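Practice set, problem 2.
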Amino acid sequence: MRLEDLNIYQSAMSLGDKVWELVESWDSFAKFSIGKQLVDSVDSIAANISEGYGRYHYKEAKNFYYYARGSLFETKTWIQKASNRHLITKDEAELFLESLNDLGIRLNNFIKATGTKQINN
């Protein structure tokens, strides 16, 4: 299986693109402060999944999947801050948080399956 075939990777990439499109419309102060942090954290989810997938040993790979999970939680914080500061609506925040929660569940399942013969993502 190729990295690009992993559903968790595809979801993380898509979420990163959606956040990028959102932040592009913000004013320069918001982009520089919250926007940069938000984009960095959401992009780190896919990047760490990718790096873990490329590792030779499953224990090493799992470490990067844990980093991806950490970035996912960081992204939740930046989404909440963006909502609190009226950069996104409550509805937009809720949609992003739902997507992150869904990805988090699937990422946890992927982490549990890593090192076993059966991986469902």
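Problem 2, part (b): a different protein.
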Amino acid sequence: MTTAQGYVLISPCRDEADYMRQTLDTVVAQSVLPARWIIVDDGSTDATPQILAEYAAKHPWITVVTRQNRGHRAVGPGVIDAFYAGYQTINPQEFEFVCKLDLDLRLPSRYFEILMERMHANPRIATCSGKAYVEQGGRLVNEGHGDETSLGMTKFYRVNAFAAMGGFVREVMWDGIDCHRCRMMGLIACSWDEPELRFVHLRPMGSSQQSIYTGRMRHGFGQYFMGTGFLYIFASALKKIPEKPYLLGAAYMLWGWLKSALQGKPRYNDLEFRHFLQAYQWRALWVGKRRAVEEIDQRTG
């Protein structure tokens, strides 16, 4: 029986020719290289296949999986479907860690080395990441993700924890549900804002192939699906008002939740999870996210 070693990257992508070389080059330059990198071309129509073939020819640990063109970019369930198209080509137990990695990022050189060091130091950490920054006016601006989540564009997981929580849900809020489910299991989901873990997100958070407003509406629906209560989404929308596109972005996010509720759309079919989530959210409204998460960690640790 062989011991699981190293990490495997799985990257769903579609039409990423404008960004992907920066991701590819910064992964190739990592201080600790991945054991495997499975890149799933989800029906690209630009130069993505040619670029992938170029890198795969140079680096034998890169494998390209090609899926049929569905005619459009799919977010949420479509991205996770593409992730699993790559995941099913490997034996996860051969690796200690697995990471869903987007191809619109620029990573610092010791990124994965440091994440593995942190996880070896604390066996309770199930998933972690650094922090995302965007380039605006010649400077880097923090996208504003909380410390209680690993970021969806670089979901770095302990393989056994990923299997134990049942993997990713194939819905828009997959990257929130997983972190809360980890906490339900007494594990930790987290991210750190430190110079060596700050990466550049080349496509703005909350945007979509249509507009940032569509992205905010989608986020509102995702929060509704996950089980978020009205007071919590209302408070979240208020917090978003000072962020571009200012008031309208917050309004679209809130409307995404309200419209889903008015239409009676289905919610995540796990009542225990939704009760856990809403109890956490109520506590977070009173004492803040950090304190609410610390209380869960102390209770379940």
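Answer key, part (b): The two ends are 31 Å apart (CA to CA). The chain has a mean pLDDT of 92.
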